[in-house]
Fold this sequence. Notes:
The chain is mostly helical. It has one domain (24-210). It has eight helices and no strands. Mean pLDDT is 80; it is low at 102-109.
Amino acid sequence: MVVLSMHELSEFALLCFTSLFAMINPFGVAPVFQPMTTNMTHQQSRQVALKASLTAFVILVIFALVGKFIFDFFAVSVNSLRIVGGVIFFLLGYELLQAKLSRMKTDQVDDLESYSNDIAITPLAIPILCGPGAIANVIIFMHDGETLLHKLVLVGAIAAVIAINYLGLVGASRLLRFLGDSGNKVMMRIMGLIVMVIAVEFFFSGLTPIVQEMLHPKAV
């Protein structure tokens, strides 16, 4: 039987929270989120933020519980996920760089609702919030958690970071609206460049280990 001290548990909780916070980066998502919801009312953008946050929470918890099994079953590596995430990030960054996202045709209610549902799932929930780093983190922490209490602490850390993410999206979107149309376009292009740089890092951080393994295969 594993005996836990409050100190050990608090250290594990802090490690889970800080690692996930750094990977998800709630405040870094806001400048990407706001241009996508420019043509929406505050209530509509708030619903998108809520749906994206809840979706991200559910996905992270699912991966924490069965992620290792899924990866092993399909023989999928986290590095492959990094490559795919990098490609999606790059395409998103290119659209931001061209300032296209705020010009989506959302005149009809049905189109706006469909667009809201689409961006809440992809790219907001996946891969921006649930990126390869966050998914790998929850899988590793769940594996390292020796007791049920450890695993509950991990779920609590995920919930806390996602809650902060939601509040950050709602609050930051209000602030960014004061920039106006010109300010939004400038912000979109700056963030597009940053997102594309992040995408390249994601892509090569996944590709490099795969290439190295191909060039220097481990002896069986």
